[in-house]
Amino acid sequence: MKIFSINDDNFQTNFDELLERGKMDMKNVSKIVDGIINDIKENGNSAIIESIKKFDNWHPKSDDDLTISQDDMKNAYDKLDDELKNALHLAYDRIKSFHEKQMPRSWFDYEDNGNILGQKATPVDCAGLYIPGGKAAYPSSLLMNAIPAIVAGVQEIVVCTPTPNNEINELLLAAMHICGIKQAFKVGGAGAIAALAYGTETIPKVDVITGPGNIFVATAKKMVYGEVNIDMIAGPSEIGIISDSSANAKYLAIDLLSQAEHDEMASSIMITTDKHLALQTKDHVYSFLKTLPREEIARKSIEKRGAIIIVNDLSEAVELMNKIAPEHLEIMTLKPFELLPSIKHAGAVFLGKNTPEPIGDYIAGPNHTLPTGGTAKFYSPLSVDNFIKKSSIISISDEGMKEIGEACALLAKTEGLTAHQKSVQIRLDSNQTV
Predict the structure, then answer these.
(1) Active-site residue identified among 99, 177, 328, 345
(2) Is 50 a catalytic residue?
(3) Domains of the chain: total
(4) Is residue 381 part of a domain?
(5) Are residues 108 and 85 part of one domain?
(6) How far is 49 from 65, CA to CA, in rounded Å?
(7) 358-387, pLDDT tens digit by residue?
């Protein structure tokens, strides 16, 4: 794990490497993904079945084999021990409560002249959720994607998840049952994104696709954007930590590893004012690594994409972290809330020693589907807003037309749009003759 200082001669070179962490070389996979998308657009389920045979190592015999039944979801839920059921329900309740506070409202503004202006918020008809599988299954991702759609009022929710060897994680099935999922399919990768975007014989076409995935999934989401809406183009997971001498080095080390164990491309970056703490933290990172079942993955991540930066003061730490714009940001300082006003770019901010990033992954309540690779500079976490669109409401009275119509007609005339001008003018003339 690299340690360097802001005062080093080669600091900018090292720091620029961190800023490039989120770059995904989509060129290498775009041709493959484009072929998958076009095949599924033209051939539907038959193309999906061929894709599953190729990538997931099993052969669906019919379209029905693609479907995950509600009975399987309920059976998986029934088999859970009470402690795990309670944990899932606690997570569900907290996530739902948080997202209910995000609900936009429809509103109307009644002007004195009788004009009515407003906004109407309406959920999309159908949402597609992509839940990763493969190296690990993520029931928490199902909760985080399904619950805001449920809160938004989406009537039709469709889940796609890969099932290598035709095996599906029982906890993921149980989470589907808790969320009341009625349509779920054993389809993963770029093929799932194409199926959701264009529809097949059994998989409905959706209005919006959310959920994380590998580079093939991310590339497919980028390609189908416009046919459907998407949440974001998410890359590998990452954590940033700002710490001072008050922080516990063991806490910092295991928190850095909490992202490194996701995959080899994950990034773990700490910025600290304390050189001794930096060295301690690095030592603990390597001690903890030996105890992790996913040591090989975490070690590659830490050694290739992990770093500790030593700065002169916390203002420098904040400045650098805003440039990094991390997916997750922990502030492990003596007075963390004092730094919060200066934090401009982060997917989620975790304040204080008892707020490790994993508490946000599972149970705190805010969404864990977050912008990565510096995109927190312009993207927000997944929310109810991703499943709702807004319509502007306009109603102009006779009096209102008299007040603003002439100006409107003049602007239309100035732009050379004669029909626009006359559309307003004819009403002005009619009102004058009444």
Answers:
(1) 328
(2) no
(3) 3
(4) no
(5) yes
(6) 9
(7) 999 999 999 999 999 999 999 999 999 999
